């Protein structure tokens, strides 16, 4: 495993997540049913601990994707991107959907979170096969 590729892929997914969730922030907060602040707006607990923990989890996903690529012989950028997207769309997004069904959360939350999982796994797959 190439630690630099794994780190770069996780970092790219982290940056994509920042952009993705900024674009869908208001919809995501409502769909996630975050508690309301004094002004009646959904509040979130964005802290260094949350960001650091999410980056560590992205490192784990990136390392797992890299491992899957090694086992299956994925070496080209198109293969990396499509295999990553497939894992995000066909494994991670449905799991998010199951969790949200049992938590009685909006399908919008599943679309936002599942969309990020799909795009970030595609991006990680692209980077893992690029470097």
The tally of beta strands, per DSSP, is 0
Could you state the order of secondary-structure elements as H and E?
HHHHH
Distance between the termini: 11 Å
Structural class from helices and strands? mainly alpha
Helix content: over 70%
Question: Beta-strand percentage?
Answer: under 5%
| Overall pLDDT level | 92
- Structural domain tally: 1
Rg over alpha carbons: 16 Å
Query: What is the overall shape?
Result: elongated
In DSSP terms (H or I, runs of 4 or more residues), the helix count works out at: 5
- Report the biggest beta sheet as strand number plus sense, adding barrel if it closes: none
Low-confidence segments, given as residue ranges, are none
What does it look like?
The chain is an all-alpha fold and 131 residues long. It is 79% helix and 0% strand. Helix 1 packs antiparallel against helix 5. The radius of gyration is 16 Å and the shape is elongated. The protein starts with a helix and ends with a helix. The model has no long low-confidence stretch (mean pLDDT 92).
């Amino acid at each position: 495993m190439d630690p630099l590729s794994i780190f770069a892929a996780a970092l790219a997914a982290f940056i994509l997540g920042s952009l993705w969730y900024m674009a869908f922030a208001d919809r995501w907060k409502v769909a996630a049913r975050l508690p309301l602040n004094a002004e009646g707006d959904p509040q979130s607990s964005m802290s260094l601990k949350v960001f650091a923990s999410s980056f560590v989890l992205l490192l784990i996903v990136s390392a797992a994707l890299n491992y899957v690529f090694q086992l299956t012989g994925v070496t080209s950028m198109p293969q990396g991107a499509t295999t990553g997207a497939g894992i995000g769309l066909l494994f991670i997004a449905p799991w998010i959907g199951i969790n949200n069904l049992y938590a009685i959360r909006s399908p919008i939350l599943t679309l936002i979170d599942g969309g990020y999982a799909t795009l970030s796994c595609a991006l990680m797959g692209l980077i893992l096969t690029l470097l």
